[in-house]
TrEMBL record:
This is 2-iminobutanoate/2-iminopropanoate deaminase. One of its GO terms (molecular function) is 2-iminobutanoate/2-iminopropanoate deaminase. Belongs to the RutC family. It comes from the Bacteria. Gene3D superfamilies: RutC-like (3.30.1330.40). PANTHER family: 2-IMINOBUTANOATE/2-IMINOPROPANOATE DEAMINASE RIDA, PROTEIN HMF1-RELATED. It comes from Flavobacterium arsenatis.
Length: 126
């Protein structure tokens, strides 16, 4: 049985999807972009600030499900420009203990929703 996870501390979905779905002990999150959850405006000052907003949005979704980044077992990062990888990776990495960090792939794409530079989704397990 699936449980829909929703929090006002992360951006509301902008399409026919939910922020996350919990099935048993496994949480599947939708991709987060750098939308401010209060204003629903994009935070695109620079790639580090954008990535931090993405991670803070993800943190809010995880917390709503009773989890933290320690529960994350898999992450997917979509980026517009692989030249931003180092800066994105630095911010992303600050949310994890390197010794217990999740599996991950990073993919450069042609376009992301709202023309953002980074989108991240995760799978987490209790």
């Amino acid at each position: 049985m699936k449980k829909i996870i929703h929090t006002d501390k992360a951006p509301a979905p902008i399409g026919p999807y939910n922020q996350a779905v919990l099935v048993g002990d496994t949480l599947y999150t939708s991709g987060q972009i750098a939308l401010d959850p209060v204003t629903m405006e994009l935070v695109l000052d620079d790639i580090e600030t954008e990535t931090k907003q993405v991670m803070e949005n993800m943190k809010a979704v995880l917390e709503e499900a009773g989890m933290t980044f320690e529960n994350v077992v898999k992450a997917t990062i979509f980026i517009m420009d692989m030249n931003d990888f180092g800066k994105i990776n630095s911010v992303y990495g600050s949310y994890f203990d390197e010794k217990t960090a999740p599996a991950r792939e990073t993919v450069q794409v042609a376009c992301l929703p709202k023309n953002v530079n980074v989108e991240i989704s995760v799978i987490a397990v209790r």
